[in-house]
């Protein structure tokens, strides 16, 4: 990839971010108070985080992969269901992932 292509991509990304921010400021306040918009605003970050987690856990080089990361994610989900504190959830995920990798997974 050439330096010119990189700078064009950076410029387009900058302009896009600015226009998105400007668009958010131009939305009328009464539109933001509608119940549907409020529900979507509350659920959108959760959906994006779940999608990012799934993509990072189950893909490698553009292919679907099930490996130790999936076991760690499942263990973390179980810890969350059992209402463990956040640091315990992270520790459980790390220990299970490391354990599965040590066993050859």
Which structural class should the secondary elements be placed in? mainly alpha
In the sheet with the most strands, the strands line up as 1-2
Low-confidence stretches: none
Strand content: under 5%
Major sheet attributes: 2 strands, antiparallel
Estimated radius of gyration: 20 Å
Number of helices: 5
Relative helix content = over 70%
Mean pLDDT: 94
Order of helices and strands: HHHEEHH
Distance between the termini: 35 Å
What is the number of strand segments?
Answer: 2
Pfam families: AzlD
Transmembrane segments: 6-28, 40-58, 70-100
Keywords: Membrane, Transmembrane, Transmembrane helix
Protein name: AzlD domain-containing protein
List keywords for this structure.
single chain; 105 residues; mainly alpha; two-stranded antiparallel sheet; 5 helices; 2 strands; 79% helix; flat
Offer a concise description of the structure.
By secondary structure, the protein is mostly helical.
Report on the architecture of this protein.
- By secondary structure, this protein is mainly alpha-helical.
- The chain has five helices and two strands, in the order H-H-H-E-E-H-H.
- A two-stranded antiparallel sheet has the order 1-2.
- A hairpin with a 2-residue loop joins strand 1 and strand 2.
- Helix 4 runs antiparallel to helix 5.
- The chain is flat.
- The model has no long low-confidence stretch (mean pLDDT 94).
Topology of helices and strands:
Elements: H1 3-26, H2 29-32, H3 35-58, E1 59-60, E2 63-64, H4 68-81, H5 86-102
Antiparallel strand pairs: 1-2
Helix pairs in contact: 4-5
């Amino acid at each position: 990839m050439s330096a010119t292509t990189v700078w064009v991509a950076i410029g387009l990304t900058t302009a896009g971010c600015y226009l998105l921010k400007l668009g958010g400021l131009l939305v009328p306040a009464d539109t933001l108070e509608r119940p549907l918009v409020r529900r979507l605003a509350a659920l959108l970050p959760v959906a994006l985080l779940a999608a990012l987690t799934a993509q990072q856990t189950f893909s490698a080089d553009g292919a679907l992969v099930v490996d130790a990361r999936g076991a760690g994610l499942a263990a973390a989900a179980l810890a969350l269901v059992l209402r463990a504190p956040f640091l315990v959830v992270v520790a459980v995920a790390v220990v299970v992932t490391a354990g599965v990798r040590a066993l050859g997974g």
